[in-house]
Amino acid sequence: QVQLVESGGGLVQAGGSLRLSCTASGIIFSINDMGWYRQAPGKEREWVATITRGGSTNYADSVKGRFTISRVNAKNTIDLQMNSLKPEDTAVYFCTCSTIRGRSYWGQGTQVTVSS
Q: Is 48 helix (H, G, I), strand (E, B) or coil?
């Protein structure tokens, strides 16, 4: 079992920045990729960014160049630095990870609200 806890959400004006963090606990040695998804009201959950255990990153086109995902394996954490935020970035952001056995785990989510 892996537990994920997000923090760092909040309210920010358009053009501002926020930094989300996610800390993993439990059977952490089994974690491979980690990443972020988001879900806006009335919309399906969408992928935002992924980082592998080795540090390779991938981003959704909608956030590329504005968001940066990072990982500190020794601390079992990942961060999502979000710059130049737009109202359309408003969503609940979820941390997720996959394990060497192919299982996926999710955090409880943290709300990000960007006002225009």
A: strand
102: phi then psi, degrees, rounded to nearest 5? 85, 10
Residues 33 and 77: their CA atoms lie apart, in Å, by 12
DSSP 34-80: EEEEEE-TTS--EEEEEE-TT--EEE-TTTTTTEEEEEEGGGTEEEE
Residue 59's CB is within 10 A of a number of other CB atoms, namely: 19
In tens digits, the chain (116 residues) has pLDDT values of: 899 999 999 999 999 999 999 999 988 888 899 999 999 999 999 999 999 999 999 999 999 999 999 999 888 899 999 999 999 999 999 999 999 999 999 999 999 999 99
Quote the tokens at residue 88.
């359309």
Nearest Cα residue to 34 out of 58, 51, 15, 49: 51
By three-state DSSP, how is residue 74 classified? Answer: helix
